[in-house]
Amino acid sequence: MKIGIVGIGHGKFGNRSDATVQELAFEPFKQAIEDTENLRRKDINALIVGSVPEYHMQRSLPGVVAEYVGMNPKSTWLTEAACASGSAAIRTAYMAIKSGMHDIVAVIGVQKMRELSTQEILALMGRVGDVQWESIFGTTFPGYYALYANRHMYQFGTTKEQIAQVAVKNHYYGSLNPNAYFQKEVTMEKILGSDDVAYPLKVFDCCANADGAACILMTNEKLAKKFTDTPIWFEGLGSASAQMSVLRRPNLVEIPSAVEAAKQAYAQVGVKPSDIQVAEVHDCFTIAEIMAYEDLGFCSKGKGGKFIEEKQSYIGGKSPVNVDGGLKAKGHPVGATGVSMTIEIVKQLRGDAGKRQVTGAEIGLTHNVGGIGQYTFVHILRR
Amino acid sequence: MPFKYFGKINFTPYTKVDKFADYLQKGKLMGTHCKKCGEKYFPPRADCIKCLSDDVKWIEYSGRGTLHSYTKINAAPKGFDDIAPYILGVVDLEEGGRLISWIGDIPDDDIKIGMEIKVVPRIFEEIEEIKLYYTIEKP
Ligand SMILES: [Zn+2]
């Protein structure tokens, strides 16, 4: 029995100092119900929240979200896999429906990151490496990706300009997305001239911490047609882990969990990387998108820089990637990101993506990485 | 020498490999070696990933290695802002395993991935509580 999406809702990402975390969650939840044909809130059997709890003043998020969106006394729980918490929640929902335990599940990815200062966030995120042997020297999240970037440049001759082109592309597509945090194009000069965060990564190589929420409603094949004419199906769900510590990784030029999760997903569907018509990848930093092209097999190892230079990840190229602006332009409310990626693919496969539509897209992919690569979920969706 | 003295800010004062800090204070960089299957660990582990044995012994590392990658941290996390900017290096140790630490007395322009380096045990003397660490230096 196929499992698919029958309703989507996406809140505005960015500085949302106007709302509490549960108020943020309400917006896409309401939209997702209204996006269906006559699915009522009372039809939903469970609410799964994807979020990273450490960012919030409010403890135990599913409790406050379930109450605020009026889901009590239905079942609710949290899934956490760092920046991949949203996709982890989707995987959990898939399992719940597939098993027959629940028929209709709401997944809300939500995060309010701006309750903490940038320094506190840097400290918190730096501890996503191994705290016993790494964080004691002041590692940071951008610092880890900078280590990947430098090694990639050394090993494959990738250039700063190629890396920066990811930001140029994603800000261009972000300018076409009304839900994005940043809706303006950015020039190469501005990116290369921005301040260093962690050499060689600059301010414009990094996605922005943001507040935001996104919601999807999932159900099985038997019920889906009742709620929409255009269900979008999950066909492959790859999931893998990698070492917490970069000191124990096989190399620093790929995300091994992404390679493994992609392999699983392609095998489950029986497709090749070149069959993917539109992809949403985890560009928490520009270099992360370049590694994603390689890890997903859109190009061969080490050729990611050339891939963006040739504009192969633009609409019209071999593999259009992050045509909603990616984390880079949308902002990265960590728990919401995987759900947001999924929503973009749903819009693309429904043919509802407007100015950023990939013509005739029938098969799409999401690639959601947690932490510095400890978790990756790769989902393949089809119309 | 309790493990809590290892690092500028220590997040794990308790560990089965706390003797690491004793050795470091004596100027020795130590890893562990699984007595059953022979697997070597740096950073040290008390338990073997490979064969699940919990019987390991300490072995001394030379500190020699090559620079695998590096970054200069400008935006520092809480507790490290007073020493920013600082350069972090990842070292492939000659005997296997890796470590991450600050690059010490090497001019920025001389830092090259693949260069030979030496890891040197250190004590933060200017800080009231003794803190142990190591830096990456030219051999
Ligand atoms: Zn062993």
Keywords:
heterodimer, A: alpha/beta, Peroxisomal Thiolase, Chain A, domain 1, 9-stranded mixed sheet, two-stranded antiparallel sheet, 13 helices, 11 strands, B: 139 residues, mainly beta, 5-stranded mixed barrel, 3-stranded antiparallel sheet, 1 helix, globular, binds zinc ion
Write down the oligomeric state: heterodimer
Q: Main β-sheet of chain A: number of strands, strand sense, barrel status?
A: 9 strands, mixed
Structural class of chain B: mainly beta
Strand order of the largest sheet of chain B: 4-5-6-8-7
- β-strand percent of chain B reads 35-45%
Which stretches of chain B of 5+ consecutive residues score pLDDT under 50? none
Task: Please report the distance between the alpha carbons of the first and last residues of chain A.
Answer: 15 Å
Write the layout of secondary structure elements.
The complex is a heterodimer of chains A (383) and B (139).
Chain A: E1 3-10, H1 21-35, E2 46-50, H2 61-68, E3 75-79, H3 85-98, E4 104-111, H4 118-126, H5 141-156, H6 160-174, H7 188-192, E5 196-198, E6 201-202, E7 212-220, H8 221-227, E8 232-241, H9 256-269, E9 278-281, H10 286-295, H11 304-309, H12 326-330, H13 334-350, E10 363-370, E11 375-382
Helix pairs in contact in A: 1-2, 3-13, 6-10
Chain B: H1 19-25, E1 29-34, E2 40-41, E3 56-61, E4 64-73, E5 86-93, E6 98-103, E7 116-124, E8 131-137
Parallel strand pairs in B: 6-8
Antiparallel strand pairs in B: 1-2, 1-3, 4-5, 4-7, 5-6, 7-8
